[in-house]
């Protein structure tokens, strides 16, 4: 059985957990001997990987906001036409049994509709709610009939006519044969957002427990954050809480490490101001993006992991990695992140957006070392029992494999000429 994964990005060119997760699943399934191929964007280097097809045009890094309107419309039509054409070519040449969609953000959401129209068995691993957001699909966001101005109305009508000419399907959200979600929160939100699927299944995300494991005991004041350094991740809340802790618990070993890519220069200036105003320069380190190979050691050098997201976080890979590494997790619990541990047993919850609440929960860990030790031990056990990486791969394969018996391959797939 051949499975074609479709993702906007793929290792080594990734933006966040969605693309990293796709890459990990592909690697594991291929190592197990399964026939897996990947269609991704031309931002991804192919190297010597015959199974990777970096053909899609992806607008993640495109500076479309500053483009003149006509140039933007030309780009959109050219990009959408190109993506539709190469998608059909890959389907025709590779003849997959299943087309398994991952992150389609900033590519072409219509590809999922096209696969279904061509008679393929389609699935989705939903790591976030991006498929529901029109802003993640440039064509859809620019072709909405919003009566803001005559020029905007003309733009929407132009794209709708162009869509007919390039055979772009008019259907909005695609319908899948199956959808996999790592949290119940995501499944509820996707269903509420009118995403349709014949079947839904929760596939718990996992961690490689042979790479992420506890190290030697470290000072309790070593605190870690990993992830995108962005406002919706609540890093400013963490800094505010940390400043309270330093004043309340003034020891030289207090250290906060903020590890992850910076997405907004203005936000970084805001964080730098917080560090300076509170005299935290000797206690806070911004590492920038950390290579995944270095993450296990980074976790083992810390005692507490903070997940301060203020938006509805779909899941939280960092939480699982920290638990596997034996850190005590303190989490806002927004979205699906609170499903990953039991408050008071394998982690602690604090009130989202409340720096004082966060500071109190961390201080509680400082003052109750015996309880902290139990939390760290219980967290590791929970990962080993329920969130091992092998269980994730096994769950995905067992879910998609029986469906291969129902598939009738399409004899001819339409050829779209440039």
Characterize the structure shown:
The protein has 418 residues and is an alpha/beta fold. It is built from 13 helices and 15 strands. The protein has helices at 17-31, 69-94, 110-117, 138-142, 150-165, 184-192, 235-248, 265-277, 295-300, 317-324, 355-367, 369-386, 389-400; strands at 2-6, 35-41, 52-56, 98-101, 121-125, 175-176, 178-181, 196-197, 200-202, 222-226, 255-259, 284-288, 304-307, 328-331, 348-349. The strands form three sheets. It has a seven-stranded parallel sheet, sandwiched between helices. The protein has a six-stranded parallel sheet with strand order 12-11-10-13-14-15, sandwiched between helices. β11, α8 and β12 (284-288) form a beta-alpha-beta unit. α2 (69-94) runs parallel beside α3. The longest helix has 26 residues, at 69-94. The protein is globular. It starts with a strand and ends in an 18-residue tail after the last helix. 42% of the residues are buried. Mean pLDDT is 88; it is low at 404-418.
**What amount of the residues lies in strands?**
5-15%
Order of helices and strands: EHEEHEHEHHEEHEEEHEHEHEHEEHHH
Apparent shape:
globular
Strand order in the largest sheet: 3-2-1-4-5-7-9
Structural class: alpha/beta
Q: What can be said about the biggest beta sheet?
A: 7 strands, parallel
Number of helices: 13
Distance between the termini: 30 Å
How many DSSP E strands?
15
Poorly predicted parts: 404-418
Mean pLDDT: 88
**What is the quaternary state of this protein?**
single chain
- Assign a percent range to the helix content: 25-40%
Round the Cα radius of gyration to an integer and report it.
23 Å
